[in-house]
Amino acid sequence: MIPFEKESLDSKSRRALVVHPDMVSLSQSALEHRLDEADGLALAIGLVATASHYFSVRKPKPATLFGSGQVDQIRDMMTEHEATILIVDGSLSAIQQRNLEEKLDVKVIDRTGLILEIFGARAVTAEGRLQVELAHLDYQAGRLVRSWTHLERQRGGFGFLGGPGETQIESDRRMIRDRMGKLRKDLAHLR
Fold this sequence. Notes:
Blueprint: E1 15-22, H1 28-44, E2 48-56, H2 68-80, E3 85-88, H3 94-104, E4 107-110, H4 111-122, H5 126-141, H6 168-190
Parallel strand pairs: 1-2, 1-3, 3-4
């Protein structure tokens, strides 16, 4: 996950829409409390929640979590409120996050990603920064579903010599594993 760039609060790129997928039929006051809390979390990293809304999700859709009508409603709300970031106050799978980003053409952050951003912004000590980066990488490792279309195997060697190489996702996983190993060593050294 790429940390947000610091911009002024009134910048259009810092406007967010907060949505809560209500899968357990919370009371109205509980829903309002959840949305208020998510608005506060967004503000903690400099995002302005221009609107908040909850959607009843009886049967979560594997592709987007929300139904197609709800996705259309979210798109309309994003346009109406000139929001460029969607915050989902719940957990999204990597596929759901990617599909929502493609359908809405905006950055999508789930609750876990939002909390990691807050910790990253507030980490002061070297140990704290390393721990946050390790958590970011762990979170990223499970989300290596890219929108790339060139995930076919790369060729190794010169010309036509050599066998197939690793896929881009395998390469990314290896780089993340290597970085996580280095961070763990650095953390052990700091302690």
